[in-house]
Amino acid sequence: MRILRVCNNNVAVVLSEDGQEMVVTGKGICFNRRNGDELDESKVEKRFLPEDKTVLNRVEELLDTVPDVYFTITEEIVAMIRRESDLELSENIYITLMDHICLSLEREKRGLVLQNPFLMEIKQIYRREYALASKARAIIERHMDVRISDSEVGSIALHIVNASMNHDFDVTMRAPRLIATILEIIRVRFSIEFDETSLHYERFMRHLQFFVKRVLDKRESQENADTMLYRLSLTEYPQAADCASKIALFIEMNYKAKVTDAEKGYLAYHIANVVRDVRPNAFDSPTAQPA
């Protein structure tokens, strides 16, 4: 294992025997070592070998400017997420999360806590990601002896969402407010409180995350999708179809994005299911008129 570049005493970019370039870490592994030297593999504690070479290059650049402890923290957080969930994470999370944790911790150590305006929505909409971010807080505290704020936990949750859904981060930041508005439209229309423990609710939340991504990311469209579910909703649960149409109108007026009939059909289907969770007979009369 040959050193290509010494980052600091504990981190190096190396070339393995099989010609793979990677970042390796270990206490004092680069002490008195220079570029081109052989590295004692027995001292290597962790190896970072992303499939995307640009991720490796960007991590290298970050390690020039931030203490290597942030790389260690990021690695542990990503490993924890992969161990405790089925989320498929983009390798870019190593870049975005390490950079974010470094900047935010420097602020919080100085007592500068930035309030997250979407914290309530994040806790409600991204419950799984927020729970994982709370575990990330414990990892950060163990390494840095700093307990980050709930607002910061919410920001880490958004980074997890971003990495698992391949969003632009701007979309990830704007999504919670729109999802919360959609839920409020449904709540008011049917005078209900959701059963947030139900499988239908969990599936609906997952659907809304992808739906909102489509709305906020104007590059995606479903113009040619099948409208069968929408046509079915008009006869089987017209109140849900009407609610979906109201949501579509709100989005078209406020976000200048067209909601297709196919998308309205899926919305109506999920709306009907979450309403039935708390009002089982809500759609027993298919001829009931929309409000």
UniProtKB/TrEMBL annotation:
GO terms for biological process: regulation of DNA-templated transcription. This is Beta-glucoside bgl operon antiterminator, BglG family. GO terms for molecular function: RNA binding. It comes from the Bacteria. Keywords: Repeat. It holds the Pfam family CAT_RBD. SUPFAM superfamilies: PTS-regulatory domain, PRD, SacY-like RNA-binding domain. Residues 65-170, 171-281 form the PRD domain. InterPro entries: BglG_antiterminators, CAT_RNA-bd_dom, CAT_RNA-bd_dom_sf, PRD, PRD_sf.
